[in-house]
Write a structure and sequence with these properties.
By secondary structure, the protein is mainly beta. The chain has a domain of about 90 residues: Sandwich (Jelly Rolls), CATH 2.60.120. Helix content is about 10%, strand content about 40%. It is built from three helices and 25 strands. The strands form five sheets. It has a seven-stranded antiparallel beta sheet with strand order 1-23-20-25-18-17-16, with no helix packed on it. Helix 1 crosses helix 2. The longest helix has 11 residues. The two termini are about 25 Å apart.
Amino acid sequence: MKIVQGDEVEWKRGLQHRGGTFHYRHLLEGAPGTVDNFHLGIGRQDGDFISPRHRHNFDQFRYQLEGVSNFDRNGKMTAGTLGYFPEGAAYGPQSSEGRSVTAVLQFGGASGNGYLSPREVAAGTEELKKIGTFESGIFRRNDDGEGRRNADAYQAIWEHVHGRRMDYPKPRYRDPIMVDPQNYDWLPVADQPGVHEKVFGMFTERQCAAQLITMARGASYRAGGRSIYLLLAGDGTVSDMPYRRLTALHLAQGQTATLVARDETELLRLVLPDLAGLAIHPAHVRAAE
């Protein structure tokens, strides 16, 4: 089990290949170069952030903590909204209406393309700045450089790191899926008194999933593996360590942990996909090494 106290993590500048101002807190990550790599962070947009309509070759869950994130034709995410953004499906353009804070889990999806870690993205960005410029989420190559003149910023970084063309997976869902948890009922969790859940869905044949869990004061909850947990409210202990708002947990396949609530607790559970049997492209492994 990995545990991080999110409120102790410093804000850092990020996504400089997009437009405007963006800061993030890095909470949890997987192993770079693996098919099931992931990154959990909290992103803060301060009103001038912009990102063009684009798509990815990885999956992501977003949970809006504060403010409003605007995805244009795909809708707005207000505080408490959950979004599933599947690989291959275009979304945006994206902007923020004033200060916006979002928990974002990005992870390798069913296509087996894996996921570039923030360090890999940052290194690729700096290398590409030597041969071009990033403008409003687009990489524009210098006239004397070889390759496409204009490309989506992340795609250009991915192709530079991997040394090959990015082929986007065919989307299993045409659009992002926005979930309003307020419209769901709390259901009791079997054999766990004082624990209730809202199950939002399971996605793709690789079975990533999302749910909210609430614990009454004094209740215990048995957390399961292959999952990321983010504490949204309350305090207590997990395996004799304290938890509070913005505590983040990662339990790998087969791991479990018991949370005990001192106060009423609410947490978000995001289940990572089961990618057993998938192998990542060898070029990615070499690049990560």
